[in-house]
Structure formats: structure tokens, C-alpha cells
Amino acid sequence: MLRRIKVLTSLFEEIQESNNPMLPPSSVLCLSELFSVIRRIKSTMEGCKNGSSLWGLIQTERLSNQFHVFVKEIARALDILPLSLLTVTVDIKEQIELLHRQAKRVELYVDPKEIQTRDVLLTLMASEKNMFDVETVKHVFNSVGLKTVLDYEEEMSKLEDEVHKQAGTGGLIVVSNINKLISLVSYAKSMVFNEESEENDVRQVSGSVGKNTSASFNVPDEFRCPISLDLMKDPVIVASGHTYDRSSIAQWINKGHYTCPKSGQRLIHMALIPNYALKSLVHQWCQENNIPLMECSSNAESEKKTCEKAVDHISATKVAIDSVKRTAEFVVGKLAMGSVDIQRQAAYELRLLAKTGMDNRRIIAEAGAIPFLVTMLSSNDPRTQENAVTALLNLSIFDNNKVLIMAAGAIKNIVDVLESGKTMEARENAAAAIFSLSMIDDFKVAIGAHSQAIPALVGLLREGTTTGKRDAAMALCNLALYNANKLKTVAAGAVPLLIELLMDDKAGITDDALGVLALLLSCPQGLEAIKKSRPLVPLLIDLLRFGSAKGKENSITLLLGLCKDGGEEVARRLLINPRSIPSLQSLATDGSPKARRKANALLRLLNRYCSQSHNPIG
To answer: I want to staple 458 with a disulfide (CB 3.0 to 4.6 A). Which of 28, 167, 492, 523 is the partner?
Structure first.
């Protein structure tokens, strides 16, 4: 991946050096998409670098697939790059063409050595602590860079962080596997290192901590710039009232953005007002924690110069809008009159253009793109269909476009794509489009009225990737806010499937599945379907202990609902489970306000059941 990005960097540098003020519209869209892909690649690489090495090893197939998807996205972006119209050298053109050809035909590759090492690690996790070979453990841990006591301790800390990340998505099996890894690393540490080497490492660690005191402090969230996430050196307030670091917001504005990055609100002026109160607090915090302020003062002058360019950005903004209008009208013309290949490319260009910026989405709709895109949902060409449904999804983020999309009769075609789209990505983006459209209450009714909409979402919940399952669950969650749709969701067989997904460590939608079940609980048919599941109650008890904050709230909602209205059997099963009462008492003390209220209500209910037969709960 790094080699590919280096080749692209050469292209970027030549385009920059050519100083051509009028790049072809399709090249701008291509470069914007490449920027988006490279940014996600960077985020993934940083996640691999900063996350748990052992958990990364277990996830090796998923990560390999993720990088394979990135390569395919680069190839699709390069499909619309008009190299012949760019002022670049022949050498660069040949390199980009070669990269394009290779990226289009690249196949998924998973390193067999990593798979073998991962299988050994899984065997170690399943073994009794006193049954595995220490040399095998050392070999596996060394292969991912764990060699010293400090490495082992950092790995345990990273695994504990991973537990919190996975609580709302990975489910109990994933959390259990990570806890097994923590236990394995802890035991291996005591086996691999003797006391003397451990003490030496600890002394080295304490010495390094003394030298890097400032690095050990966590910057408070309110002192971090929402754009860069770094400590703000020169905080300024924009027209929306939000505060950013001067250099970050200046770069944002100079790139042609005229909305607040945090709220999306249009900025009525581009003035940057110094936030002296926050700057004083930041300086005070830095002094208290021995963090040097020299960098702030040394860069202040250069940052102010940078921001002077951002103060009056209105004329540049108008130019940007006019450019988008011309591009949108040109591309919609290709949709209307072009061949199948040109229509496919045009749909992809609109998909990219609608990816960012509310004004872009408004302008594309005003250019008349929506009816053409709705028609293209019925295309027999997989890429055309996928690009059309994704473009409609991106356009639907702008609320006015939701009305236009529904008025164009899109829901039937979107449901058809959801049910039997040519590609899984098209089906999943159709589900995401339904979720977006269903944000408007009236459309919850209209979408639910389509006989196949909810069954098709349940089908994707069964067959989709993790992303698709999540999109389907979120759409069902939105639709189930309307009572008539709850009955349809139950009738489509959603309840047993959602419970099954709670036990699937690869599904990754624990919180979303719980959210839908909690909504279906208020429907009599939903309550009856949920009551039929024997594994659910012990599963919910475990989620009270290991789930996310949202997951705990929905778990307690489900348990409370199951115990009400004649739920003596569920109450009895709760009372005989040794983990239930301590978990409820812990939640009643430390949970969110909603969780505390429901936990106390459930404890009172159980106390009532308990007192009818023997001693009340202590």
C-alpha cells in the first residue's frame, strides 16, 4: 500500500508543480476520492500501529480484506482520471497506468505465515495455562514485536482498551476472546521473565517516564481542536460559535469549505475571533503539567499570516459553487444522453461529488440528477446500479433531497436493489438510503407500507457483511418507531435472527440488535417472540456486565419488560442466576441515569417475587 501511495504522490507533485488553474472536473473528483481513500488508509495503518498486536494478528483476514478494498477503491477512482488532459510527464503517466492496471486485477492475499501464527495463538488461548510450551509463546509474541516486560504490559493495556471498543459491536464472544488474550499475556509474562529481569525493566521504565513527563498526560477533550484533535495553541471562535485551533480552521477555510466542521452550519462570515479565555486555561494547564509553551509562541506569527488569507473567503466560495454547478450540469447531461459506459462513469462522478458538502448535494439535485439516478437503479450493469444507489444515498443526507427522492418514486426501486441488487455493496447502500430517508417521520410510514421493504432489510440482516447488517439494523430501528412497522418486523422473522446475531462474534452489531429488540418489546407480538428465546436471558445478564453503556441500557430495558406482565418464569431464571443480582446492583449504582432507574425498578420487582417465596434480596 505504501508503494502505491508513493506512486500517487509523484502524480500529485507533478499536478501541483504544473500550476494549472483549470483541472478537468473528472480529475478533481478523482483526486478528491483518492484523498478520501488515502486518509482512511492512514487511519487504518495508525490503528494497526497503535492497537493491540495480538488482536491484530487474530484479525489478520479482516485487515487483509480491508486493504484489498482500499486497492479496489483506488482503481475505481483512477477509472475517471483523464491522464491525457493533465500536464504530467510520460514517465508518470506510465507509472499511473501500470498502477491502475495492477489495482484492477489485484486479488485478495492473506499471508499464510500470519494465518499459521494466528492458529497457534488461538490454540494457546484455548489451552490450560500450565499446558502450553513457554518457547511457543515466546515465538508467537516475538513475531508481533512483544519482547520485553514493557511490551507485555503495553499489550495488556491495549487489549483492555480494545475490550471497551468492542463492547458495543463485537458482542460477548469477542470480549471473552480479548479477555482470554489478556489472561494469556499476563500469565506468559510471569512465565517468560524472571524477577530480576522484570525489576530491571521496571527501573528502565520508571527512568524513561521521568524523562518524558509531559508525554504521559492526557490532554482534556475541551482543550483539543475538533479538527486535528491536538492541543490548541491558538484557539479561535468561528461564526457558528465553535472553537478550533487557528491553523487547523484556517487550512479548512482555505481549502474552500465554508461550513463549520463540527456542526455543518454555514458560516455567515469567515472572521476568526481569538478565544482568550480558553487560551488562558490551556496555558495554565500546560504550566501545571510542565508542558512547554515555546511551540505555541514560536508558531503564532506564522499561523496568523496563514489565517489572514482565510478572513475574506466569500469570493473564493462563490467560485467554488459556480464550479460545482458547471460540473453537475455537465455530468447530468452525460446521464441523460450518454452510452451505458458514459452513464456508469457519470453516476460514479455524481456519487463522488455528492460525498461531501451540503451545497454539492443541493446543486446536484437542482441540476435534475435525481430522476435519472432513480431510473438507473433498474440497470442490469452492476457498477451502474451500485453507483446510482450510492449517489442517491449521498444526496439523501441533505433533507430537502429526501423529499425529492421520495417524490421521484424511488422507494420501489431502492427496495428492489435492497432485495436483489447486483452487488452486496449496492444492497447495503440501499439499506443505508432507507435509513437516511426514514429519518423523516412521514417516510417511516411510506417505506413500511411497501410490502417487501422490511422483509428485505431482515434478509440483509441475515446475509450482509458487518456494515450491511448494521445498516439494516439501523434502518429497522428507525422504521420500528412507527407501531405498524413493529408488527411487520416481527412477522418477517427479525426477533430470532437478532438474538442469533447477539451470539455471533463476527456480526459486530450488538448494540444495534439490542436497540431493535428493545423497540419490538412494546409490541405484544414482539414480546411473545422475545419470550420464546431461552438463551436470551443469560445473554442479557452477561451484557449487563460486559456491554457498552448503550448496550447495558437496552439489556436492562429488555429484562424489565420480560419480567413485567406475568414474567414470573423470567424473574425466577434471574433469581437463580448468581451473576444477575450483583450485575443489577452494580448498574443501579454506577450506570447511566436511565440504566440506574430501570435497574432499581427491576430489583424492586425481583424483590417482590423473591419475598413471596423466601427472603427478600439483600
So the answer is: 492
**What does the pLDDT average to over 48-76?**
93
Torsion sign over Cα 138, 141, 142, 148: negative
Q: What is the pLDDT of the chain when averaged over all its residues?
A: 84
Asked if the model's pLDDT at residue 169 lies above 90, the reply is no
Give domain limits for the chain.
1-105, 112-192, 221-289, 313-408
Tell me the C-alpha distance between 187 and 176, whole Å: 16
Q: Which three cell numbers stand for residue 233?
A: 495553541
Between CA 514 and CA 595 the distance in angstroms is 14
pLDDT per position as a tens digit, 111-143: 999 999 999 998 888 877 666 778 888 889 999
Residue tagged 482534556 (cell numbers): 220
Q: What letter represents residue 440's amino acid?
A: I
Distance CA 236, CA 247 (A): 10
Please write down the long-range contacts of 574-577, taking CB distance under 8 Å and 24 or more positions apart: 574/537, 574/541, 574/606, 575/606, 575/609, 575/610, 577/537, 577/538, 577/541
Contact 231, 299 (CB under 8 A): no
- State the amino acid at position 34 in one-letter form: L
Q: At what angle do helices 494-502 and 524-531 cross, to 10 degrees?
A: 50
The whole-number pLDDT of residue 129 equals 62
Q: How far is CA 184 from CA 125, 137, 187, 248, 357, in A?
A: 7, 9, 5, 43, 48
Q: Which of 380, 289, 397 is nearest to 343 (CA)?
A: 380
CB atoms within 10 A of CB 531: 18
Residues 6+ apart with CB under 8 A from 133: none
Q: What is the pLDDT of residues 238-282, one digit of tens each?
A: 878 888 898 888 887 777 677 888 887 777 766 777 787 788 788
Residue 372 and residue 401: Cα distance in Å, rounded? 14
| Better-scored residue on pLDDT, 120 or 21 | 120
In CATH terms, the superfamily for domain 313-408 is: Leucine-rich Repeat Variant (1.25.10.10)
Alpha-carbon radius of gyration of the chain: 28
Read off the pTM.
Answer: 0.71
The CA-atom distances, in angstroms, between 252 and each of 34, 238, 261, 307, 398 are 18, 12, 8, 10, 21
In terms of average pLDDT, the best of 167-171, 279-283, 443-447, 549-553 is 443-447
- Helix intervals (H) in 193-339: 195-211, 246-254, 276-288, 294-308, 314-337
Residue 473 near residue 436 (C-beta atoms within 8 A): no
Q: In this structure, which amino acid lies at residue 593?
A: P
User: Quick one: which H or E segment has residue 237?
Assistant: strand 235-237
Fold of 221-289: Herpes Virus-1 (3.30.40)
**pLDDT the model gives residue 150:** 85
Q: Which of 112, 108, 86, 113 is nearest to 97 (CA)?
A: 86
- The DSSP code for 535 is S
